[in-house]
Amino acid sequence: MKRNPVENVWRFIKKNPSGVLGMLLVLVTVTCALFAPLIAPHDPTAASLSDRLAPPSWADETGESEFILGADQLGRDLLSRIIHGASISLQVGFFGVLLAMVIGTVLGLLAGYFGKWLDDFIMRAADVQLAFPFILFAIVIMSVLGTGIWKIIILLGITYWVGFARLIRGQVISIKSLEYVEAAKAVGTPNLGIIVKHIFPNVLSSILVLATLFTAEFILLEASLTFLGLGVDPSIPSWGGMLSDSRNYISSAWWTATFPGFAIMLTVLGFNLLGDWLRDKLDPNIKV
Question: Which of 47, 201, 257, 269 has the fewest Cβ atoms within 10 Å of its own Cβ atom?
Fold first, then answer.
């Protein structure tokens, strides 16, 4: 007897509750990022000093506040700024991971497959990269290059390629000794063909899992850098910038820090849950 679609969906949710929760949190963030101008109730940059530090409408005893999550120190709507800030976080997360993934995957494939001096050179470069504390490295780079979203993306990409390279290298070393790879070599298949057709598809699942987990980390790092004044321009709505602006008003206007913090927490949680679920489904090394 065939189940109807509703039963199939419910069965999937019961079997994968954390994965579904992660998907929903990520979906909400992506929707806010893509449709921010349509969803946001106010202009995120419009200031109104008469509404300065207005409390959330549901917590305002006077009933005068029109802002669902309150207003910041310049009278700007927090909800609208949080919705628009999702775009900044996802851009950094997506493009930063994409850059790190491309660099790390290529170098990891080359190091693991060819080995010898190339492997030694790439892995020693990775060791040198890991020797620098990220915050110190970020402060030096951003002080020289200046702030900006694309500079953060480049910084994260050239810093976190090591994670992809080390993971892929280890898997390639074990895969290249398998029978089907040896058979491909025996029939004269070029090295590039072996890497693209026989090795890369077998490491793709691990790349996707690590990319999802790194996206969460990049969102957190972008907020941290912006909080320190080394990230996104203050004129652009961003979650880290909102936290930085609110640090002087935490005791008098708790909403200015609480809701941007919740946005970061829920988005990072969503990507981590999604990454854990993908790891359980795609990584053959942990399947029983």
Answer: 201
